[in-house]
Amino acid sequence: MIPMERRLRIPADVAHLAGVRALVRDVAIEHGAPPTCLDDLVQAVDEAATNIIVHGYRGEPGWIEVDVERDGDRIVITLEDAAPTFDPTQVPEPDLTVPPERCRPGGMGVHLMRLATDELRHTARPGGGNILTMARRLDPRPKEDRR
Hints:
Elements: E1 5-11, H1 17-30, H2 35-57, E2 63-71, E3 74-81, H3 109-116, E4 119-124, E5 130-137
Antiparallel strand pairs: 1-2, 2-3, 3-5, 4-5
């Protein structure tokens, strides 16, 4: 099978997130991703791109480039940006023992990205910015059932 890669570059604006989700969905479906895998990938990329726009660029102009490809039995998504360097893999796990009503809104995006993917890797982009790579196996089971 010939590897398929798709790339999309969007302005750093939440109004463009639907295109990112559609790209991930289209590539995953073309490679036979089961529904659980598809949902995980779309959720992970949506969380990552939203974080880049809201917390990285903070309303300033910018861009995000999204690459989606199949690599063996995995779908790999790479997001590249020029926002200030931030490594989400260094964000500590949330304290899930705290009742939801006592938590501040937000702050779960990185946790959700970790739950939805098998691999989450960050590198600083040469010249400034970030390269975030996420991968999920084409497996119908949720992550917790694949260990």
